[in-house]
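Notebook entry, structure prediction.
Reason for the run: the old model in the group folder had no record of what sequence produced it. Starting over properly, with the input documented here first.
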Amino acid sequence: MNSMTGYGKGEFKDDLIDITVEIKTINHRYKDFFIRMPRQLNFAEDMIRKEVGKFLVRGRIEINVKINHFGLESKNIKVDLDLAKAYMDCLKTIKNQIPEVTGEYSLSLISKFPDVIYSEETETDMEILWRKVKAALGKALDGVVETRKSEGAALESDFVKRLGLIENDLKQIKSLEDVVLKDNTEKLRMRIQEYTQEIEIDEKRLLEEIAYLSDKANITEELIRLNSHIQRFGKIMNESDSVGRKLDFLIQEMHREINTIGSKSNHLDISNFVVDIKSEIEKMREQIQNIE
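New structure, fully documented this time:
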């Protein structure tokens, strides 16, 4: 079981280039990418998505790629001779038209004009660059996977603890079930007799009505289903696939069952246990939103 919260950083470095990849993930209903990288890597965006998708199933995935080239291997220095000649012609025109202007034309002067001398990125071998980026990306993914796995283990431990608390409360409710059923039956009998004091009633029919009303207040089925959900929860946590959606659905079913128990019960102690169980289920529901 993995969390959707993770972080990893990877680097590739040789004599020509330094590549750093950082990956941060947080919870999200689906798989959502947000990638920042230099324009020269635009060709690799789909490849980055596919590589990351091999390891991460759900979550918002923020990827930041930085590239630093060493030396001039990645740049060509060029000169625009036509532009230089145009600047020179302009200078000559100024000198001819305004005699007061003095001074000579020099190489240092011409080279300072905008865009006469400029640098241009060299074409990058995309296959070689991708191999280097992939190496850094792999290291970052290792970190992300490890942190998501570690946090997932912590969440699993917390779930086990809370499921244990719920099971204990359910045992307490179960131990009160017969007493509550007997009390409710007696209360129903007394209430019916109170309202029918002056009416002759069929004892057999009275018992049938009491049995019917008592059955409606019976919580045995809900207790069985809730315990079954708890066992299923534990099995799902041990599955190797993405389990967040399954657990989210199952926790809703658990909440439904405990609500039914609470609505059927008319006993203070059981009501208190129901409140405690609801509290634990709600805490688990919030944490499940971060499970992959």
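Summary: The beta strands are 6-13, 17-26, 31-36, 59-69, 75-79, 117-121.
The old model has been moved to the deprecated folder.
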